[in-house]
């Protein structure tokens, strides 16, 4: 059979834990989680920026943006 049984998964997990140790796996999990979190954050910021660029600007909004850019 080409499918994986629960025993295949258990044996694979044991081998991975023996090879790398729990501390390295824990650090790897933190790194991957941080990368995913940063990726989601950048996607949300990009979507907000795209939405801001698509909306038409009134004169008041243009003046406000100009004031904010001068303050920065």
From TrEMBL:
GO terms for molecular function: protein transmembrane transporter activity. Keywords: Cell membrane, Membrane, Protein transport, Translocation, Transmembrane, Transmembrane helix, Transport. It is found in: Cell membrane. GO terms for biological process: protein transport by the Tat complex. Its main location: membrane. The keyword Transport applies. It is a single-pass membrane protein. Pfam families: TatA_B_E. It comes from the Bacteria. One of its GO terms (cellular component) is TAT protein transport complex. Gene3D superfamilies: 1.20.5.3310. The chain crosses the membrane at residues 6-22. The Tat system comprises two distinct complexes: a TatABC complex, containing multiple copies of TatA, TatB and TatC subunits, and a separate TatA complex, containing only TatA subunits. Substrates initially bind to the TatABC complex, which probably triggers association of the separate TatA complex to form the active translocon. NCBIfam families: tatAE. Belongs to the TatA/E family. Part of the twin-arginine translocation (Tat) system that transports large folded proteins containing a characteristic twin-arginine motif in their signal peptide across membranes. TatA could form the protein-conducting channel of the Tat system. This is Sec-independent protein translocase protein TatA. The gene is tatA.
